[in-house]
Amino acid sequence: MILACYACDPGLTRGRRYPEIPAPTRTDFQRDRDRIVHSTAFRRLVYKTQVFLNHEGDLFRTRLTHSLEVAQLGRSIARSLQLNEDLVEAIALAHDLGHTPFGHAGQDALNDCLQRHNPESAGFEHNLQSLRVVDALEECYPAYNGLNLTFETREGILKHCSKRNARHIEAREPGGVGYRFIEQPTEGPQWQQPSLEAQLANLADEIAYNAHDIDDGVRSGLLSLEQLEQVALFSQHRRESLVLYPDLRGRRLLFETIRRMLSAQVYDVIDATRLALRQAMPANVNAVRYHSRLLCFSDDMARQSALLKRFLLQNLYRHPQVVQTTLSAQQVVRDLFDAYMADPGQMPQAHIDRFGGIDSRHAAETKPERVVADYIAGMTDRFAAREHERLKGVVAFPG
Ligand code: MG
Description:
By secondary structure, the protein is mainly alpha-helical.
């Protein structure tokens, strides 16, 4: 793979938190990707909600298939831009590891629980939780907790972070993955962006969910093709598909339309980013970090994508049926949190053993409420529902 000067070169990685001897046949980023694929948290993604709950149908996206789609889109754009494909893939496969069961509903509920328990709490952020999974919660290697990934993969995983939580990270890891989220000296350029590979994984996430949520929305019957005609990006590609294949109907027409939308967005990102890179001419990845965002849509595609996102918010994510499930899911998470806080013995012993843990680097994060939140966040949808039934005697999602 020939890398551009602004790509992340595994030979120049900023390294791992615990130094390791390089692998004989794989680069450090390939090794990160492999560790992620072999992790427990990765396997759990198959039973976690993207938008539709796991039990609602076998063909809807789950966090796992979503992550694979993000990796596919990311790799294909990375290759055209001579970015590091393996790094994009590693970030894409890990980006949702910290998601709770039941998607955003679960996350919001868990955040409320932590804040309610202690108003001083750092709360629950899924990006930070993804970092916690790979830094601390996976327990597979003899010498350390977590997966001991490279700085570059961890930087990509921490897509957003509140200032407050970033300051905690900065205290443990000066100049590390939290730095770009905290206040920096006002004079001179600011380090506010991650590598282009991380910027790409982020945009590929957006492209992937905008497209597959249309597909899942129609499959579920909550969105109709007539409604989707309001979305310019969709109607334009549907029209073009019908010009070429006038008899196309149903699922094939939907698939062809979405396929064309995806291609248009991929080519747009490649062209717009090439233009931005030609103008900025970053000499290396550090120049990328101190520049404004370089990996981007064109202005027109950015507008179209924002309109599509707004359509999905109004018509799918806020659909009464989705909202109803969301409310039940939030109740499940709240009930589980309260039940484990009242009686930690309901959790497996390994989790209770983490209370007030001895690893000084994570000591602040082993208060009982954090351990309970980690336990709940790690659950799959169906395990959370079963636990809820066991502890409360209520079936949260009948049928
Ligand atoms: Mg995602």
